[in-house]
Input
Amino acid sequence: MEQERESRKLKYNVDATVLSGAVKQYIIPTRYNPDGSISLPTQAVYGIDPNHSPIDAYMATRTVPGGLIVNSIVTSGAIGVSKTVYTVPTGKRARPTNLVSDITASATVGNRVLVARVLDPNANVIWIGSSSGAVTAAQIGGYDIGFGMPGTPSTTVRRNIANTANTNVQVRELSGITDLLAGSTINIMDVTAVDVADLIVCRTSVIEYDG
Output
């Protein structure tokens, strides 16, 4: 009887050829029926997370292990003293990859001085970039950052994001920042705060992970 039980196996063949070519064999508990069929008890199985309940709604919000690439486009008509262009969402951590921004000065006379900063969740500055040269009335200043990237940054003037004009003053920075905690922010500021009507357009690319 034991030998007969051992010989009854579930064979799984991935390429649908004859059973003798099965690539795996699984011994299963069986109940012998007169017609030779096999009865298998079944039960629905659900994932369990001891830290979250109900799990169904929670699992739908989980980020894949490799992270989720997020392209954030921020447009504001009021840069003020400082404009936050990205905030790490609650429950996430983020790896910024790059930032491209244009600041178009209004007709108000005055020298704008642009600086990019990264702040931790408590608003402490953990990285600050180089100050730009003077951006004067009606000019466009560009500020770009490559995060976690080696090499020497270029200060070559480029086209603006809208591809309608060249930037007049260009800053290209490299930052060693690799990971940011939830609540951390990236912002651009005019340290001279000439005119809150200055326009900022910024595109920030990050990879977000479950924190």
In short: The first strand starts at residue 9 and ends at 12.
